Prior knowledge:
binds zinc ion; two-stranded antiparallel ribbon; 7 helices; globular; Rossmann fold
Amino acid sequence: MGSDQLPERLDVVAVAPHPDDLEILCGGTLAKLVKQGYKVGIFDLTSGEPTPRGTLATRKKEAEEARRILGVQVRVNVELPNRVLMDGPEARFALATQFRRYRPGIVIVAGGRTPAASPDHLQGQLIGEAARFYSQLTKWDERFDGTSPYRVPHLVYIPYPFDAETRHWHSQFVVDISDTIDQKIAAVRAYESQFDTARFQKVEHLIRSTNGFHGARCGYMFGELFALPTPIGAVDLVQVVHGSKGSLAPVQLPGKDHPPMG
Ligand SMILES: [Zn+2]
């Protein structure tokens, strides 16, 4: 496949097993990235079906409606099997092929265990990490639909909220989603086959309380918590410590004009 046949590059791609996972986890940030001018993709590893009230056709329609509400430009279904999603070579090849096609600058992977929910979630993390590594490998193009090697520069985790392990991950940071929380809630509401009125009330409560908690820790109304696989590098201590309030201008530190203690 020549590069002239490839789709336009994406700035940020988010990966999770089921259509609705990423809306619940980081829909506010995805909508915000679009508002900030970035090209964003959602890669669902599976159709998310079967489920008790869903069908393939309705889930697909709901996912498209959620994409439209968030303003995300691209939504790809990797078409791996729901419920029995397992990390393995074929799953890695399938996702890495999409990374090679869309060449994202940042990949966000839903991370962590959900011991009381779908085991697909942890497998999705493993597939995401491995596919990001595989994407750059040479001499294997035939395993990736003839696409050329592409190295994804950055990996970011969006942790599942109930996972006790991810709470201790280092390099956590919170994105202010105060101005996109309503878009996020509306995108989740699009999944009517998954959330009837009673279930939607529960998930909305979960989102508002979790994002309210994480946001409040950083001085925002609502925030989404992310983590990096590495420490956060800094060339400017002041920017990291104080610049999170939105200003990129040189920071006037509180107390700077105070007379020296005499
Ligand atoms: Zn899920």
